[in-house]
Amino acid sequence: MERVLIIGAGLTGAGLAWHLARAGARVTVLEAGPYGASQASGHSFGWINGSFYLNPAHHRLRVAGMAAHHRLALDLGADLWDWPGCLWWEDAAGLDAMAAALGDLGYEARQVSRAEVAVLEPALVDPPAHALLFPQEGAVDAAALTRALLAGAAAAGAEVLFGIAAIGLDASAKGWAVQTADGVLAADQVILAAGTGAAALLAGLGYRLPMLQRPGMILTTHPVARRLTHILAMPEGDLRQDRAGRLIAPLAAHHQSDTAEEAPPDPKALIAEALARLNAMLRGPALQVEQTALAFRPVPGDGLPAVGPVAAGLWLAVMHSGVTLGPYVAEGLAAEVLGQGADPLLAPFRPERLWA
Ligand SMILES: Cc1cc2nc3c(=O)[nH]c(=O)nc-3n(C[C@H](O)[C@H](O)[C@H](O)COP(=O)(O)OP(=O)(O)OC[C@H]3O[C@@H](n4cnc5c(N)ncnc54)[C@H](O)[C@@H]3O)c2cc1C
Predict the structure, then answer these.
(1) What does the pLDDT average to over 230-246?
(2) What is the dihedral of CA 60, 113, 249, 263, to 10 degrees?
């Protein structure tokens, strides 16, 4: 039986563990942090979409990601997803071009007028003149999905070790040796699903994985009565309401394509501004902040996922938009690790393009 060691228990590592353990591999997951606190997956906006994309192959992978979420919902038997659709008017001037480009890709994007938006989202004080509706998009609590996958993986026999960091790895005649402060773990195959932590492990092996520095803050309000149905992608930023009634807003406009390289120098001012913006934007009693969190998106240097083989028995899975992409990538890469053939949708995203 293949011994597979996965480094990182975020959504990507958890999905890989779930697929591999259920396929009969002997899986160990090593996570530096405590249970349930994965870096990006624990602090994500959770929007599952095909509308934010960098090129057609990236779009196709995202659409495959959306379908993988639906499969996962059935296989996991969990009720964690909402598919309300997204209303997008992030770039009013680019609306027609966006609709045309997505139409060419066969993706449903419907133009809606101000009057229609007002009916779809009556709490909006000032609906936009036009928006695009992406009816098939959804959202999930990425932290809850990660926990569900880890529980499923453990039930299928995976060993999940928290609070243990991989500090280095070496190829040996018998496979791979992964060093931790508590000793060395041996495996036939190792998968680096360590998000922003992957580059340091690769550097120890002589591979340079360029990563962008992309901090993101998420503001969550106290739960309120239902105000929003759709995910909103607006010039002011993205916004959605979760099942518990909390409004969730990344504290940077265009958070999916955010180019901010530094954590906000004055988070308190940013939070106050964001809250004032939300309160001005939505009808209803004043919203209050429940929590804010800062996390770093794992973004490879060209913005695209880095997924595939690094060396014999060593694999990499690092990506932004990993909530959208993670379930498909886990499915496809698990099959590759098990020797079931290369996944054509993953072919444009091999890590070797990034070794400089
Ligand atoms: C603010 C914000 C908003 C986002 N919004 C969206 C969105 O709306 N839609 C979307 O699709 N994506 C979104 N993303 C991106 C998405 O959350 C990530 O791409 C995804 O969660 C990555 O999952 P991961 O498992 O690959 O990485 P992570 O969740 O970061 O998990 C990697 C894990 O590896 C562990 N680790 C690191 N180094 C080591 C080591 N040496 N040894 C052991 N363990 C290690 C870390 O502790 C971490 O838990 C957002 C991200 C952020 C930060």
Answers:
(1) 96
(2) 70
Whether the CB-CB separation of 219 and 251 falls below 8 Å is answered with yes
What's the CA angle centered on 324, arms 323 and 326, to 5 degrees?
A: 65
pLDDT band at 191, cuts 50/70/90?
Answer: very high
Q: At which residue do the structure tokens 């060691």 appear? A: 5
Domain presence at residue 75: no
How confident is the model at residue 255, as a pLDDT? 57
Q: Is the pTM of this model over 0.85?
A: yes
The pocket around ligand 1, CB under 6 angstroms, is made up of 7-13, 30-33, 38-41, 43-47, 142, 165-166, 193-195, 197, 201, 216, 218, 250, 255, 295, 297-298, 319-324, 326
pLDDT of residue 333: 98
Q: Are residues 60 and 177 in the same domain?
A: yes
Domain that holds residue 129: 86-135+213-296
